[in-house]
Amino acid sequence: MKHNFLTGLVDFDTKWTEKLPIKTLFAAFKKVVPLVIINVYLHLIGKLFFDPSAIVPAIFHIRLKLMFFAQNLMLLTSAFDYLILAFVAALWTKYYLEAKLDDLGLVKDELLPVLVNFAIALIYGLTTYTYANQSAIYLVFVLLLTYLANLSFVYLTKWTKGKLADFGFAYLFWAAVILTIVIALCAFIPNQVSQSSFNGFFSMDFFSHWYGLVVAAIVTPIAFAFGFAIPTDLTTAATDLSQVNANLNAVYQAVMAVLPYPQNPYSVLTTSALIGGVGSTLALSICLLFLKSRPNRRLGLWSLVPAVFDSNKILAFGLPLFFRPLTLVPMVLTSTYGTVLTSFFIKVGILRPTVFTVPTGTPHLLLSFFASQTPLDALLVTFVIMLGAILIYWPFVKRLEQEAFNV
């Protein structure tokens, strides 16, 4: 049964990735991987060394008086994020229009739509960026606008039978209309959405029970795979949730107090479902290291250190993880597995929940060890979660390699 399911999933994945929009999008993703690697490591340096509560200065009791440099590095990496998004939009436009217009027997210069879609990504960045939402980038929004712009260009070209001048008035008017619509849409994005902060929502009592956390564990990888920004309430801002504050107050009053909210997003999801990023993708990086394919091993090697510190961006663009059924299924399985296991151990009293705050950059792999009142038990549970995640990913990764060889 397991073999039949996996075979069916691989067949579906193969057919899905052969569709022209997806095939050309994946080609664009893989083209920008070198830029993504540079971007990720710059982010990692900033997070570990220059953030006001970074882990390296906290551990070694040093104070880096490079505030000006740190701020400029932060701005550089944030601009780099949107630049990569713009390159993806531009490359996807070029690859897609070349293939689509060739299928229609039309010849057109794709430079204007490439520039328009490059500008779409930059407009999105300029209108939504704030200090608080550096990582809250909705890839799906930019890609949807890019695809609709491409379709409109194809339909205009097809309708006019390719007789319009490449940079004639009609195409320039088309570009102006597209950019005007994009600017208007970006202006209406609510701040709460652009910052990907939903504190009130995740502070609901529903997320203080195992079933609410399992729902979140299932939905989070799906949302990530479709290009939605993951709420900061599950990552960097998890300690701001009301359940976490209530638990912390209880511990301050009595060290081994009965916690009011033992199961919450911080004590369960952050520590078990997000090890290495959404879908516990540290396990995926480890699996890639043992494949026969040199490109996959190289990708695993480049992604390993960032994955330890909970960034899976290299994998997201390199495999990719976005819009990919064959990687989405194990991401959901590992996320759910870690959530259920951690919730169970907390429920039966084997594991004391994660309650304390930790320095910025602390790996989720060690979060429960540093922030739980039962550190050794927490470390053992994390090891079991990681082992299970590797076993879940392995058959899917092997099929991924076979699929690549068959292309």
Considering the chains and any ligands shown, give keywords for the structure.
PTS_Sugar-EIIC/EIIB, globular, mainly alpha, transport, sugar transport, transmembrane helix, membrane
Structure, described:
- The protein has 19 helices and no strands.
- It folds into two domains: 66-194, no CATH class; 199-406, no CATH class.
- It is globular.
- The model has no long low-confidence stretch (mean pLDDT 86).
- With 407 residues, the protein is an all-alpha fold.
- The protein is 70% helix and 0% strand.
What topology does this entry show?
Blueprint: H1 2-17, H2 20-31, H3 33-50, H4 55-60, H5 67-103, H6 111-128, H7 139-159, H8 169-187, H9 191-194, H10 199-202, H11 210-225, H12 242-253, H13 265-273, H14 282-288, H15 294-308, H16 313-318, H17 325-347, H18 364-371, H19 375-406
Helix pairs in contact: 2-5, 3-5, 5-6, 5-7, 6-7, 6-8, 11-17, 13-17, 13-18, 14-15, 14-19, 17-19, 18-19
The class by helix and strand makeup works out as mainly alpha
- Count the beta strands: 0
The tally of helices reads 19
Order of helices and strands: HHHHHHHHHHHHHHHHHHH
Rounded to the nearest angstrom, the distance between the terminal CA atoms is: 26 Å
What spatial form do the alpha-carbon principal axes imply?
A: globular
Percent of residues in beta strands?
under 5%
Q: Averaged pLDDT, please? A: 86
